[in-house]
Amino acid sequence: MSCLQTLSDYGLRSIGYGERLLPKADITLCEQFVLIGSGMIWNIYFAILALLLGFFLSTILALGKNSNFWLFSNFSRTFIFIFRGSPLFIQFFFAYELFVILPKLGVDLDLGFVTITLETRWFTKAWLGALIVLFFNTSAYAGEIFYGALRAVPSQDIESADAFGLTGIKKFRRIIWPTMLRLAWPSYTNEAIFMFHATTLVFFTGFPAWQQKGDAIYYASYFADKTFNPFVPYPIVGFYFILLTLVLIGLFSIINRYLNKHLPSQERKKLKINTHSLIR
Amino acid sequence: MFSYCADPKTLEGLMWLSCYITTVKHMSFYVSFLVVMGLISLAAPLAMAFGFAGAIASRSSIKVFRYLGKTYLAMIRGIPDIVFFLFIPIALDQAFEYLRHKVLCPEVTEAIRQGNDFVVCTAAKLPLSSASEWVHDFYGFSLALLAFGFVFGAFTGNVLLGAMSAVPKAQLETGEAFGFSPRQIFRRILLKQMWVYALPGLSNLWMILIKATPLLFLLGIEDIVYWAKELGGIKTGVYEYPHPDWRAWYFGVLLIFYLLLTYLSQLVFDKLTFRLSLGQATMAGKSN
Question: What is the domain range of residue A227?
Fold first, then answer.
């Protein structure tokens, strides 16, 4: 079987298109590359959605932690502490078991004019349940980063804004927010990389891979299991992740350049990719 | 545990609960908490050793060591560490068995890799199939510990390397001016001063180490996650203590355990930072 044939059979296997049965015997290198690459679709899906949604919630959490209103402040602090203080792995397990014991049939939300039936069974599926956990987790970590940056916004900037008569939302959107983002961006880039790498945890935890539609690590461990040779599939996962991490860094450094473009070149913040564990 | 626990079916309320949480299986559950603590306290010094070796090697004047050290420290940047956690125990296990096979059974000429199978002679199996239960557990734990040491060693190495280059150059040059040899400068000046620069990074790594311990479960060790799944699952009437699906509660307990652990560590590190920065020529040192 040619490699192109394999590509058309298994290229979209992880989202349910193409050949149903996974290769069982005589596994070729091509099959490993294609299936693991197909699994990467899930990693990318989780990373992009969690990061996009998390960007907004983390800004809200950062503002909350900085707020004088005790309810908002305490809520943000507790949220950040819970998601940063416990392992993501346990969060996945806990969330999954919690979603399982939710009423199976669905909850009717009566909004007065229209009734929405929330399908709670979707929560136990990885595409929604795991996404929620990743979303909350990245929000907490990025919230802490944004909070640190918010505290570091120069007071002169805020005084100038006051002098120009900017208040409320306008002051935040025009002055504080861009500076906060600029200061936080190098750390936030690291957070995005961690989030991307943390997506490998999804199918190891409670969330089952339905009809063998799993992520890259799911297929890698499948191949390691079938071939008793971990030396091929895991390095392939590593290869894909390095490649996409480079793409991610590229995207974030474009945004970084945009955020810094008004500054003289020696004051611009450089992206520096830190090394931290990706398990948290 | 208690004398009234002989017939759990007749018990109710708190009496039932007190018997339920003291069963033999629950005792194993509590012991696994100690295993987690043990892993943390053993992996931390091991990672320090690996990291120190890596940091020194990557500053070495010998080319081979330098490349080895740099590769070790850089490797962890691009690849998710979970890949290493899965890969290292299997790779180590196969490497040990391969070596033992070559030494112990030289008469076997068949290939070890037969297609997709990894076959070694019975004498080379690790641990031996005749070994008792605890040997298997201990072997699995040791492989996991090595994996933790290796991965966290690379992180620690990066932190230590950063701390070494953060020590003010003038301090080292002063040593040179006094006629210290490079070794003496390293030992007496660099090594003494780097810790305060390393502390934020190390405390961060300690937190991450704590939060990485549930990975033991992935390596097939009967840790807290395993027991939480085992004990929390639905128990039908055939069990002594039937109950519905309680896994969410068990994982809730684990969540609280980890939150407590990280909270207490944070308190300790705050104290330590305060102590170490006393008298330092930094903003923190000046302000108190």
Answer: 43-106+119-267
Confidence band, pLDDT 50/70/90 cuts, at residue B201: confident
- Tell me the residues of chain A between 160 and 199 that have a Cβ less than 8 Å away from chain B: 197-198
CATH number (domain holding residue A73)? 1.10.3720.10
B221: which chain A residues are within 8 Å (Cβ-Cβ)?
none
Put simply, the answer to whether A238 touches B245 (Cβ < 8 Å) is no
Please, are residues A84 and A95 in contact by the beta-carbon 8 Å criterion? no
| A91: pLDDT strictly greater than 60 | yes
The label of the residue with tokens 């007496």 reads: B188
The strand pairing partners of A117, in sequence order, are A108
Residues of chain A contacting residue B152, judged by C-beta atoms under 8 Å apart:
277
| Residue B256 pLDDT level (bands cut at 50, 70, 90) | very high
B29 within domain boundaries: yes
ipTM score of the complex? 0.79
Give the residue carrying structure tokens 């940056």: A149
In a domain, B222, yes or no: yes
Residue A98 has a pLDDT of 85
Pairing of strands B113-114, B117-118: antiparallel
pTM (2 d.p.)? 0.80
How many domains are there within chain B? 1
Number of domains observed in the structure of chain A: 1
User: Which class for A73: exposed (0-12), middle (13-18), buried (19 or more C-beta within 10 A)?
Assistant: middle
Chain A nearest CA to B251, separation (Å): 5
Looking at residue B180, its pLDDT comes to 93
Which value, in Å, is the radius of gyration of the alpha carbons in chain B?
A: 25
What per-residue confidence (pLDDT) applies to B77? Answer: 66
**Residue A174 covered by a domain:** yes
Residue B275 within a domain: no
CA distance A47 to A54: 10
Bond into B127 cis (ω within 30)? yes
Which among B80, B85, B215 is the nearest to A197, CB-wise? B80
In this structure, is residue A63 part of a structural domain? yes
Does a structural domain hold residue A4? no
- On whether any CB of chain B is under 8 Å from the CB of A77, the answer is no
At A197-241, the pLDDT tens digits run 888 888 777 787 777 778 888 888 888 888 888 788 988 988 898
Categorise residue A61: left if φ over 0, alpha if ψ from -120 to 50, beta otherwise.
alpha
